[in-house]
Amino acid sequence: MERKIYKSLLKWKHSNLRKPLILRGARQVGKTWLLKEFGRREYKSFVYVNCDKDAFAADLFRDYDVKRILLAIEAHTGVKVREGETLVVFDELQETPRGIGALKYFCEDAPDIHVAAAGSLLGITLHAGTSFPVGKVDELTLRPLDFCEFLAGTGDAPLAKLLTDGEPSAIDTMREPLIERLRRFFFVGGMPEVVSAFAAECSLAEVRRLQRAIVDSYQQDISKHAPASEVPRINLVWRSLISQLAKENRKFVYGAVKHGGRAKEFETAIQWLVDAGTVNRVTRVNKPVAPLAFYEDFNAFKLFPLDCGLMGAMADTPAASILAGNAGFDEYKGAFTEAFVLSEMLAARDSRVFYFSASDSTVEIDFIVQNGTSVVPVEVKAAENLQSKSLRTFVTAHEGLRGVRFSLSPHRDQGWMENVPLYAVSRFFSDNSETGE
After folding, report:
1. What percent of the chain has pLDDT over 90?
2. Is 0.85 topped by the overall pTM?
3. Residue 328 above 50 pLDDT?
4. In terms of Cα–Cα distance, which of 86, 99, 17 is closest to 51?
5. Measuring CA to CA, which residue among 44, 50, 11 is closest to residue 31?
6. How far, in Å, CA of 193 to CA of 355, rounded?
């Protein structure tokens, strides 16, 4: 299954400024598979050490003597670690004391050894007693498959290529089959194991079984990895996600988690879920001016599950509601479509996404992003609804802004705003990137 981030891995390998790599991401988004595949394809040899399951790893980082560590790996695996020819993969590195700290010394003492560490966001930033090697590592984030990757992985590679390389007019000629596949993606989502099962069997029952298993594993991780004192509160926040998103404005309300709930009581629990990668937080800004982070309102935010397929499993949404015609989109347009657009934007840009809401609640913009020095207000429509009163009011009130609306309507440029089909969210942000990537 091809992943777009593979190009970033190649860039890392060939960089003269390469440092040890940390590949971040929630559990079961495919980090281990990707690094193993990268090692097989791009190196003469690779070694794999699972720091959670392999007893050998428990004593591997008893000190930061890189030569000793490499000799121990060679003795354990039988593979000679050679500069530029071998990829050393540490999986779940955060589970081993001093493991993350060791990356600093790989950077300083063995810069020509290619080292990559996979880890969920469950504690990888800081381990008890171990500081994060700031400035001594490169970092990438792996997310669930986006819609184009889903198409390529389920037998629709030509459609994926069309979305990536085709002109908007050409893409619109395939509008109906793309909308049909988009509905499938709303149900299946982008977790690699689930997509692989759907591609192999096309069994919706198996898809839902696997999604529920992943959701269950996330809940088990809460009990296993979170501080015992925070587990009850994290569980309360996790179980409230779907009902929070059922509200029209989607804003997270502490009182909906627990009667009389307050920020102080739940802020650590929410941050834990964000760090684990299981939820995406979208914070409000009170002014659409770059840099947006200067105008962030930490007291107002939305929380979305990381994957629209998992969101459907958490809500126990019937397959027919999503797959059978536009009615499915209309009924679930708020939460499901916003979750989809958010995940596509994060995959395409790997930078923060905000939203805007006026103090008097007269205008609300679903998302607002920064693209270089520009600010882009984003409106999300689940169907072909072309009414954009809030977006127009917002753009008119802020000179220099140009909006984008994602809907099921074909591509059209209206000057003050560009309408982009929902199936082309990733393409839009790739074409309009100012990062030079």
Report:
1. 73
2. yes
3. no
4. 99
5. 50
6. 31
